[in-house]
Amino acid sequence: MSELNDNKLQKALESCAREPVHIPGAIQPQGCLISMDDTFSRILQVSANINHCLAVSPEQALQSSPQQLLGKQLIQRLQRALKDAPFSTTALRTTRRFDEQTRRYNVLAYRSGKRLVLEFEQLHQSSRHRLLPAVNDWLDRFARANDSQALLDTLTQGIRELTGYERVMVYHFDNEWHGSVIAESLGGQADSFLGHHFPASDIPPQVRALYDINPVRSIPDARVTGVPLIPAEDPDNGPLDLSQGILRAVSPIHLAYLQNMDVQGALSIALHNQQQLYGLVAAHALQPRPLPPDVRDAARSLVQAATQRLFLLKAHSEARFLQRVRDSQALISDIRGQLREPATIVQEHGYDWLELFEACGCALVYPKHTIGLGRVPDRPTLQKIVAWLNQESQTHDTWQSHELRHTGLAGLVDKQDACGLLAAPLPLGQKDTGWLLLLRAEHIETRLWAGNPEKPLLDDKEEVRLSPRHSFATWAEQVTGQSRAWSAIEQRAVTGLAEDLAVAVSAHEIAKLNERLEHLAYTDALTGIWNRSRTETVLDSEISAAIRYGRPCSVLLFDIDHFKQVNDTHGHDAGDKVLVTISDILNRSLRPTDHFGRWGGEEFLVIAGNSTLECTLQLAERLRQAIEAGDMGPIGHITASFGVTTWVAGDTRRTLVKRADQAMYRAKEAGRNRVMSETGSGTTSD
Ligand SMILES: Nc1nc2c(ncn2[C@@H]2O[C@H](COP(=O)(O)OP(=O)(O)OP(=O)(O)O)[C@@H](O)[C@H]2O)c(=O)[nH]1
């Protein structure tokens, strides 16, 4: 749409929204109206047709007191009824006798500001006795409807049968207040509008607001003009607000709209979901069709009953969905106990989530991790999405869009990959946040509009106003670049899922952290082999095994020769490298059953499990040669001196290592680069 048209449309919408539909100063002719002050002392306004309805001229009526005009008894009944229900409308039945006939009326009474309004509709033939069984029958059918669609279909049939109107539809409003026809029942020559969309401007905000005050709008004859109120305005109180009434005259725009649709009679009843307008039941008659108050009330009861069942069915289906998501969360909880990797969780349950949320891909992204499943953007893109979400959602709330092209993620996510995103934060801690991302593919929809919604303008030379469409012929619009929208319940469910995943992720991170801490506690920071404390623990358990099973346990302790010189000549870093190289030599040369660790600065202890002294001497010799042969870079070659001993009864860790140390000392004394052994006496002396 051009910029000019955009501006025009905006102006037209604003002017349409200003149309004071609640104070039309007139009523529809199927009844008459009397307004009086709220102390029941003065008649303030009457409709011009009061003579026809109540056999009294407007002048006479305006000169009478309410009691004179309506009789003491009716006034007393009204006073009682309005006292009991001061803010709502009250319906009474009454009779009047004139032209030698007794006429029966339905009287709708309500307060309007400081005034009291009475709307009289003449009752011609009581239909109550046949209405009740019919209503009961429909209520039974509603109770048997087990899904929303069946229920709404039944409702449209019920309203059609009750009213005799030819087309009954259920409109549902989307988030932008566009309406779509989701159920319909047709009779006679009525055309179908099922599946059609109606632009939000068809039912402007102030008209929608009226449905919140008064859920029923009845226009039995769309051809007639309104009957004015006399006087047009009450000088003390201004225009009369008829929002709560049933006779309120219809705006000319709406009458033209109905005529353009070939509709001559209409009844609309609001469907409310917890105070919010969910939709409308709209019944159309192709000819004017009077609608007795009883039938109107019965139709309203049917809509109310169906609405309650509709939201009950919706609640059930949402509960089933939540249960399925919870089931998959329960599996995470099991896994949580086993500390399985988040990647495994995503692999095992991700496909369930894709199915449950009708998503094409899902990803779990948290610091240093990106786990994806299904159709998802590449890793760097996922990281960028999450960075954007962290910026966008400072409060870390669940974020969603079914039109990514209109968000800050437009350039990041390719339309081919996804058009919708539901993202729930993983509360991992104050600084770190991860996200669970569910992506939805494009959903190309052919939307059938009842008339072209882009052409609602009428340029009256000077003034631009919204004109009702002249054509309701189908106009098809291809809607692309969108996914199916995310429902509130899906948003709730993904939040819960993300919270559980956060627990799983944290548990895994903690497990990994513990592993790291444990590793640090066990290992020597420089060489990565066991430290002294860990070596002592292992030596203790080897000694225990030696005591219990009588199996041999030998140790060898070696110390690098002239290491101080290495440091002094080549620097401390070069010395460090030597220690690391020696650790590598040990790693390569020893059997898996041997254990070793760094015992002190340049001292290493090897525990040769299940090994006799003789075998350990051979091992020590092998190690000595390996060290001597080792290439130490610019340092050249280095050597080490070894002391070997084996456990004898009564040995403790201290005595055993002390003996090995003595042997090593002797090896140093004897000229270094050699292996010496020491055998224990079998006594317990230190
Ligand atoms: N680079 C390095 N040097 C260490 C480390 N731990 C101990 N040393 C050094 O090892 C040397 C040990 O020196 P000494 O005890 O005098 O023995 P030595 O020079 O090896 O001589 P002998 O043992 O008698 O052959 C000292 O210079 C320590 O500073 C270490 O982690 N890195």
From TrEMBL:
Any Pfam family: PHY
Catalysed reactions listed for this entry: 2 GTP = 3',3'-c-di-GMP + 2 diphosphate
GO molecular function list: diguanylate cyclase activity; photoreceptor activity
EC class: transferase
Named cofactor requirement(s): Mg(2+)
Domain GGDEF: 551-680
Keywords per UniProt: Chromophore, Photoreceptor protein, Receptor, Sensory transduction
Matches recorded under InterPro entries: Diguanylate_Cyclase, GAF, GAF-like_dom_sf, GGDEF_dom, Nucleotide_cyclase, PAS-like_dom_sf, PAS_2, Phyto_chromo_attachment
Stretches assigned to the Phytochrome chromophore attachment site domain: 147-304
Tagged with keyword Transmembrane: no
EC code: 2.7.7.65
GO biological process, one term: detection of visible light
SMART domains tied to this protein: GAF, GGDEF
Source taxon at top rank: Bacteria
Name used for this protein in its record: diguanylate cyclase
Species of origin: Thiohalophilus thiocyanatoxydans
Organismal lineage: Bacteria, Pseudomonadati, Pseudomonadota, Gammaproteobacteria, Thiohalomonadales
